[in-house]
Structures are given as C-alpha cells and as structure tokens.
Amino acid sequence: MFQLTNTKPTIQISKKERFFNTKISKSILLGFAITCFSQYEAKAQFTLTGQLRPRVEVRAGQGTLQQEGDKAALFTSQRTRLSAGYSGYRFKIFTTLQDVRVWGQDASSINRTTTEANNGILLHEAWAEISLVDTLSTIQNLSVKAGRQEISYDDQKVLGGLDWLQQARRHDAIILKYANKGWVADIGAAFNQNRELNTGTIYNGTNPAYGAGTNGIGTMYKSFQYAYIGKKFFFGDLSFLFFKDDFNKYTNVTSGTPPVTTKVNGEGVWSRNTTGIYYNVNATRKLNFMGSFYHQGGHDKDGRSLSANMASITSTYQLGRKLFIGPGIDYLSGDDGTKAVTATSDNNRFDPLYGTPHKFWGSMDYFYAANGFGKQGLLNYFFKIKYNAKDNLTFALDLHGFESANKLSNGAGGTLNSYLGTEVDLTVKYNLTKIINFEAGYSFMKATNSMASAAVKNVANADLNPQFAYVMLNIKPNFLAKK
User: Fold this and answer.
1) Rounded to an integer, what distance in angstroms lies between the CA atom of residue 459 and that of residue 444?
2) Of the candidates 127, 153, 129, which has an alpha carbon nearest to the alpha carbon of residue 142?
3) Confidence band, pLDDT 50/70/90 cuts, at residue 412
4) Hey, how many other C-beta atoms are within 10 angstroms of the C-beta on 467?
5) What is the pLDDT of residue 263?
6) Separation CA 469–CA 56 (nearest Å)
7) What would the DSSP string read from start to end of 341-382?
8) Cβ-contact 59, 65 below 8 angstroms
9) 45: helix, coil or strand?
10) Would you give the DSSP letter of residue 222?
C-alpha cells in the first residue's frame, strides 16, 4: 500500500549560487537607478561657461578732449567671468561671478591694501526663473524671473546689457515673462535699499562704484516698474515700452561758516516716465529700416518737470552677398543753452535710460556715456558700411557727424556753431574658432571749438584731433562641451 503525502521536496542552494543571485539583483537595481537618473538628466541640464576678455586701449582724447601736449594713455583691462546654470523641471538658475581689473593695479604678491573702489570682484548675475505652466500647456512660456540680471530689449538703445564696458550693467529685479505665438510681454519691477533697515525706506542713490544710467545721471534709481510688449510679424518686429524709474527726493541744506550746502534725502520719490515704440521692418528682401521714438515725462532726479523726446531711424541696404551700407539719424532733445536753468524750469533733455551708448553714438564715447557734454541734446548723422569678407572675418566703417540739438551759449550773450565734430570708427572682427575671437578698432575725430567750449566739454587749449585705438581678445569656453 502506498501512502500519498503533500510533503514538498527540499532544495539545497549553495553559497556560490546565493552570491550569484544576489549580485544579479543588485545589478538590476543599479541599472534601474541609472535609467531613472538618465531620464531625469535628460530633463535637467547643467552648464558651466567662462569668459576671459583682456583689452588693450590707447586713449588720446577718448571720452573727452585732451589739452595740447597731454600724453596718450595706455593700459590693459580684463574681464574674467565664470557662469554656472542649471535647468530642471519648471525652473532655471543662473549665476555669473565677474572680476574686472586693470593689469598692475594689484601688487604682484599678497595684497592687503586694495581699496573697495578698486575691488573688481562682484556677482554680475544671480537669478532664478520659475515656470508657471507645465509641459502640457499650450502657452510657450509664462514664468517669473527674479534676482540680479541683465535687462535688454530690441536694439538696446534704452535698455541694454552695456557689454562694451568690462563691468557691463545689471539690475536687481523681478520680471513676469510671457511668450506665445510670436508675442512677448514682460512686466518688471525693482526696489532698491542701501542696507537692511528697521524703519523707513530712504535710499541714497549716489554710488560711484556703479554708474547707473547714461547722460551723466550720477545716481541710482530707488525703484522702477516697466511693461514691454513685442510682436514678430512677417515683415519684421514691433514693440512698445513703458518704463518708470523713481529717484529719492532730497532737499539742499546750507549750514556752517563758511556756508556749506549738502543734500539731505527725505521721504518720497520723483518719477520719470519713458514711453515709446521700436520697429525693425524689412521693406524688401535687401532693404531694412530700424528705429524708435520715445517720450519722457514726469520729473527728473532733481524734481524738475520733464518733457523730452528721442527719435531715430537707420536704413540698411545689402549690396551683393557680403556688403551692407546705410545712412541714419538720431535726435535726442535738449535744453536751450542760452537760457538759464533754475530749479523750477522745465527739463527738455532726453536721457536714454540704461542702454548701450557705445553702440550708437561713436566708439569714442563722447555722448551719453561717463563724460558729460552739456544739456543741449544731440543730432547724430551717420553712414555705416559693413563687409563680411569671410564667415569669420568682418570689417566695419562708421562715419558720424555730431551736432547740438539746441542752441549753444558762448557765455557772452551770443551763440556758438552747433556743429560739434566728425568721427570715423574702424572695426575688424576675426573668429579664430567658435570660442576665440579677436577684435581691433581705431577711431579719430575732427572736433570743433564748440566741442571744446564751456557749454560742451569745457576743455581749455584743447587738442581738436582726438584718437582712440584698442585690441581685444575674447575667449568664451564651454567647460562641459563634448570634444
């Protein structure tokens, strides 16, 4: 007789087999983790780039006229940048550490005497951008960008990064950004303070370490708010800008013996409003027109009523495959130089805000840059030629005629000739590789006595034939690029 039982047979597993199975399991888990991480990395991206930009300059009347007999200046400045960015699901983060120095300004060994004014290390950019829509949204972009950042629009005439200056320009701001179907709309704001305060919001905008604005404004804004709307059409681009910047109110207080007048900041602001349009239109396949019109109102940084205008137009015509030529004109309003300026008189001097003046009003930076040139505004007649000799070699020639936009006083009840001078700018750009670029330029000017007058540059015994030359190396490596 047989007896049936449900006893299961015993299976013996050796230590070698147990180790082998465990190793397979770990390999599967590791492979799964790598796959997940790889898929995440496909959505997230890390960037690490740099820039090394030394520039040798010879200045013999750059920015303002020299006196007869003055020697030319020669120096090398250098910008060094390290930029890191990271983008993940619905966010981006970007930072740029920047150092700007003149060769030799520091001791060649450990330097413990460098003053704050000569300390070129700063945080040029540090911002985060957060998407307000997910990947399934039909809207191309709706995001908030907050932190230290460059703000540039259109041709950068009124808002630009000012890349020519080694320190460039940046703002601490927050921007709501929208983009969809060719439309772009940004709303931005900034609110500055000198330090953490327990009471009040009074802001001292005078900061010699950071030149804000153009036109010799000499002070930082306390706050700004702006709206920008742009649209790409089949014939070109059109945009609208409203920008309001606010300056802390102050009063002049005189005291002491002998009497000394000082500015004392108080509560409240004076607000300046800039409104205008920009256009970039292709009239034909070879003919392009670009320009803008802006009006400024409200009050200037000193509380004077403001009413000023700027209008510009540039034409570019393509001759053949490599040559581009075209004339243009800029008009920026100013005050009548024969009338005295008082605290109650209107200000008609247009200020091109926080743009890139080096790009428009001559490479010698005589107008709307660090050096003032009076309050009479500017007419800039120009003719530009650009020749692309090769894919990596470009030549440019710009010819400018500068004239006061208003009357110039001779200081004795009469007026001066309004023509200020003629400037010629020659530029050569050569790309050795995609990351290594060379640039050289030479500029000279035939200035008039009106340019040297007290109403404009105020230089006695001036050399009326200023010159400027530079050679610049620009290396922008991508440290994570695949070989």
Assistant:
1) 18
2) 129
3) confident
4) 17
5) 86
6) 8
7) --TTS-B-----TB--GGGTSTTTT-SSSSS---SS-EEEEE
8) no
9) strand
10) S
What phi-psi label fits residue 162: left (phi over 0), alpha (psi between -120 and 50 degrees) or beta?
left
120: β partners: none
Output the CA–CA distances (angstroms, integers) from residue 215 to 101, 218, 222, 350, 392, in the order listed.
25, 9, 18, 8, 35
Average pLDDT over residues 259-272: 91
Confidence of residue 143 (pLDDT cuts 50, 70, 90): very high
Copy the structure tokens of residue 415: 């007026």
30: helix, strand or coil: helix
- Tokens (6 digits) for 106: 């520091």
Q: Which residue from 349, 316, 348, 309 is spatially nearest to 330, judged by alpha carbons?
A: 309
Query: What value, to the nearest 5°, has the Cα angle with vertex 140 and ends 148 and 174?
Result: 20
Identify the helix (H) or strand (E) that includes residue 312. Answer: strand 308-319
d(CA 170, CA 184): 21
Contact 369, 66 (CB under 8 A): no
pLDDT digits (tens, 9 = 90+) for 291-300: 999 999 999 9
Is 70 exceeded by the pLDDT of residue 213? no
The string of pLDDT tens digits covering residues 88-138 is 999 999 999 999 999 998 877 766 666 656 667 899 999 999 999 988 888
CB 309 within 8 A of CB 296: yes
Q: Do 154 and 356 form a contact (C-beta atoms < 8 A)?
A: no
Could you say which DSSP state residue 198 is in?
A: S
Helix (H) / strand (E) containing 114: none
Strands, DSSP E only, in 181-259?
A: 183-191, 223-233, 236-255
CA-based R_g, the chain, Å: 30
Task: Give the whole-angstrom CA distance, residue 169 versus residue 88.
Answer: 27
Residue 125 Cα to chain centre, angstroms: 12
